[in-house]
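User: Assemble these into one structure.

Assistant: Restating your components, then the assembled model:
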Amino acid sequence: EVQLVESGGGLVQPGGSLRLSCAASGFTVSSNYMSWVRQAPGKGLEWVSLLYSDGRTYYTDSVKGRFTISRHNSKNTLYLQMNSLRAEDTAVYYCARVDTTGSYFDSWGQGTLVTVSS
Amino acid sequence: EIVMTQSPATLSVSPGERATLSCRASQSVSSNLAWYQQKPGQAPRLLIYGASTRATGIPARFSGSGSGTEFTLTISRLQSEDFAVYYCQQYNNWYTFGQGTKLEIK
């Protein structure tokens, strides 16, 4: 059974940093496309970042230069390093597996809440 | 960026009846469209991809149609567990989601 479990969220001041983790089971992270998707409180879904199996990374414009997606193969874990955080980054962050064609999100974690506030 | 617009924002339907949700793309996305269901406090769940293919384990009462810029999600014979928020998502050019349609009990 595919399972994704996020952790690492919390309250951080503007300008601060946070690293989110997503522990996967039931499949191999390094063999799949993986993404982070966020949802601001009471709002819709927004794609944040994508990590290809070959290591290529992509980001939505609003987080370029501030966020870094990565993985640890032996831990089968996906990460999102978030620096220079802003109030508008406040959201629930979901880890999601992307289907083999890089198209839709076929499995999701339960999410972890990041709150950026002073 | 491709903008996805869903309508209506809220849909009130009685259990046992049919619900029809719409999604429009600002430019053609071919059939590169997915639908998700999200219940309060839960992660989204994939329902439909390729505009009309049900994901694994999704009941047959969920069906998707459309191509290009106009898409529809139909839920026939609504059950209590179907009342939730539904999002469409295009993957023709990166990924963008609609703002969601809340399906509530009438």
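The mean pLDDT of chain A is 97.
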